[in-house]
Request: fold
Amino acid sequence: MAVTITAANRLTYQDGFFARVEDMSAGLWPLFPEVQVEGEMKRVDFIDVIDSVQSANTRFTPIVAVDPLHTNRWLSTVVNYQAVQVDPKDVLNIMMDPKSEYMRKLQNAFMRKREDVIIEAFDATVTTGVRGAGTTIWDTAQDVAVGTTNLTLDKLSEALYILESRGYADQDLGQTLYFAYSPKQKQALLQISEVVNTDYAQHQALVDGRMSSFYGFTFVSSNRLIATDGLGIGVSASRECYAFTSDALTKGTGLGKIVDVYQDKTKVKHPYMLYVQEDIGAVRMQEELIVKILCDETA
Reply:
């Protein structure tokens, strides 16, 4: 009987790495126009509305010219970066090269950062003035109160009313209205018969398990939406969702994006450095084109 044969037992390993699940939200960044930011900040100039006036019914009425109101907003960018070092000896020891998987993870991290930059800009305080000395805070008249309910048709209706009542958002002129929401709001909507029943609508809002469009909005799902109570998706009593048009924000890029893999020859064994850098920012252009809808995910 060969009792020592167990000494020849072998261990086997997979040929590669399994990736942990991660948030892949990336739907908001592409929706907004982009400008190049040169210098510390870029100023965006506005001319306010000019209305016509009715002349007096007399001859030779003097012309009184209007003085248009000029306003400004400032867009700045911030450099975000991340890096991973790979020791060539580690690659030899594990008999596989993780660099491609590491780079994929770094790229995913920057997809999430782009979403965060957009979401934070929706209701952030904006730098204004000819030389950037002023500020404009979020206008709470653009809020739809939480009201101890999750997303409801009443809230969607109110958001649509706010956007359209001032004439700033008009689907008849080709403007697309977007609605950013989390999976918990989707769940709440799909429990409403008017959303899923074609007896109430000409087309189904739910297509292949996803919300496409409903109530005049194109839906964009995101797991990055902020909650004022700081709680995670599905358990917050104050999830901030947004209805908006693509003219509501402007995103900016400063330095060109860097995606690089190189060997650091200042260190022993010349380890590989995987480096990603992106210089980005966003600014709210017009409060009138954004509505914040607060949702209670515990309701």
About this structure: The two ends are 69 Å apart (CA to CA).
